[in-house]
Amino acid sequence: MDFEIKQDGKFKFIEEGEGEVLVMLHGLFGTLSNFSANINHFKKTHKVVVPILPLLDLDLLHTSVGGLQKYFNKFIEHRNYNNIHLMGNSLGGHVALVHVLKKPERIKTLILTGSSGLFENGMGDTYPKRGDKEYIRHKTSLTFYDPSLADDKLVDEVFEITNNRLKVIKIIALAKSAIRNNLGDELSHIKLPTCLIWGNNDTITPPFVAQEFNKLIVNSELHFIDKCGHAPMMEVPKEFNECLQDFLSRHRS
Length: 253
Description:
By secondary structure, the protein is α/β, with parallel strands linked by helices. It has one domain (6-249): Rossmann fold (3-Layer(aba) Sandwich). The protein has nine helices and eight strands. It has an eight-stranded mixed β-sheet with strand order 1-2-4-3-5-6-7-8, with helices on both faces.
């Protein structure tokens, strides 16, 4: 990934291109490289912003979906971004949802892909298992329809996180926070144009989750992609980008 990581105060982020602002929020084990193909595509038409969420850097009290939302709000206020197309994958989608429910003023549209907030399968009852790299490889591969996408680099990144006791505690805190923070009763309050792009073979937030989001968010549209798991923007970037491009083109200023 050849994008410059910028720093403004305490915030680290990628910012590429010019135009309407498109913010992308990564998930619990996500990295900025998850969005490489999407940044390259959309920087031609948008100002693409990918903040590094401090998943493992907040104090334990604020290591929660709500804590991440507050951090994100401070980030967009500090950078003075407005009319934002806000996209989130997995936990990043959950943060986006909480933000839209609390502070919708700067947000123009919402894009969710494999988002938590209603239901998600975790890493299993022994999650996360320390010191067992093959276990981590297997669990990481469940993110994708094509397990070969869980390559050595990605597995090493997840293994390093899950082999650190304090990081494990924070991961568990975030995972539990996401499960507790069920938004089913609040989603009807979201009025923004919303695009749901989902893998038809997602086993972490299965297709019925997307259908429930579609039912509860009034102004939403749902698109399924076949042979695709929990991270469509990474696994099938061409199809994902085409779908998102069509949605964004219909919601230009």
